[in-house]
Amino acid sequence: MMPEPVSLIMIQFLDWLSSRRRTYAEAMAAWRTSCPRLSVWEDALIDGLIQIDGSSQQAEVTLTPRGRAILDENQSPPAAAAATGVGAEPGAPPERGGR
Questions:
Q1: Which of the residues 28, 51, 88, 98 has the least number of beta carbons within 10 Å of its own beta carbon?
Q2: pTM passes above 0.85
């Protein structure tokens, strides 16, 4: 059985987390949603891709070894990203319409 492909938004989320230290409060402000079709935060927790170290709003959110492996497997080389325009603003969550 082949593993299910990882969504682009999940890769963006994992990349955003790995770019620098992120707190729980910061991650919630940037990635929380009420849209059931955009459940990247919940999916990452359920799939064991991220972990929360601590119990306050300042707790750190980090990638698990599984999350790091998925990110490493799915990152495109910088030259390919530049040619396609992907990753034009590294570290920023994707734009969400309708707000």
A1: 98
A2: no
Least Cα distance to 98 among 45, 38, 58, 53 occurs for 38
**How far is residue 99 CA from its own chain's centroid?**
21
Spatial CA neighbour of 62 closest among 5, 16, 6: 16
Cβ-based neighbours of 25, under 8 Å, separated by 6 or more: 57, 58
74-82 contacts, C-beta under 8 A, 24 or more apart: 74/6, 74/11, 75/11, 75/15
Between 8-18 and 24-31, two packed helices, what is the crossing angle to 10 degrees? 150
- Helix residue spans in 1-99 (DSSP H): 8-18, 24-31, 40-46, 65-74, 78-84
Residue 81 binned pLDDT confidence (cut-offs 50, 70, 90): very low
User: Rounded CA gap, 92 and 12, in Å?
Assistant: 9
